[in-house]
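Section 3.1: Structural characterization of target chains.
Under the original work plan, the team committed to producing a structural model for every single-chain target entering the pipeline before any wet-lab resources were allocated. The record below documents one such target. The sequence was received from the expression subgroup and is listed exactly as submitted; it comprises 286 residues.
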Amino acid sequence: MPINLDEALGAELPAAEFSWTSSDIQLYHLGLGAGADPMDKRELRYLTDETPQVLPTFGNVAQSFHMTEPPTVKFPGIDIELSKVLHASEAVSVPGPIPPAGTGIAVTRFTDIWDKGKAAVIWSETTVTAPDGTPLWTQKRSIFARGEGGFGGERGPSGSSEPPQRTPDFEIAIPTSPQQALLYRMCGDRNPLHSDPDFAAAAGFPRPILHGLCTYGMTCKAMVDTLLDGDTARVGSYGARFAGVVFPGETLKASVWKDGDGFVATVTAPERDDAVALAGVELIPA
């Protein structure tokens, strides 16, 4: 069904209420590799009962954390088969630390829809508040929908940016475990592409791939641990573009540059000729 730009652009979804607990936070952090050294007190800050510190990237998954079925892409003016959709980018900004347990009310609206000819890029923004109206976080996301272009919309910007042409200020190793995807799928993403070898083979991969949002979250944690003394409260915003696949068990490399008051980075897989996994990574301290 072609995208109806007049109906979709600016459309706002009904408010959705959801809740999370400190156990959800701990499971999310475990899915990102927290606690790899169980004697490291900085690691244990992510896994403390009742009061764990919270990575802001939890805001990107909180609303869908308890989902056990694949999502649908059916909204006002938009009805797309999930198989045509690729996750393009994700970002989150926080006015303060995310509570380790709570209830949020999410309102999502579609802010931009670009016609790329043979595909469409759909941008959404979700604002999350506490029941009393206190702002908790804002999430921005874009998806790339193959075969959904040609509806007469504007082409929009390219969305690509090159990293600084100088030696990185930091290089951070990000190890992933062979079972990383099997653990992370407990965080609300049961897509069999990340767990079923036969399904992955049918999709053209030699084995299941890691969730993009897992790589995204692991990179945020690695940058917080290295650049911000492991203090999640020092993050103001974080975002990245998904540029390639990661296979569980690989050790990734984040090349990080200081950029004004913040940091930009690119994440690659050295074992595969530095294939790019995340591009345009940006962390702005609070």
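DSSP finds six helices and twelve strands in the chain.
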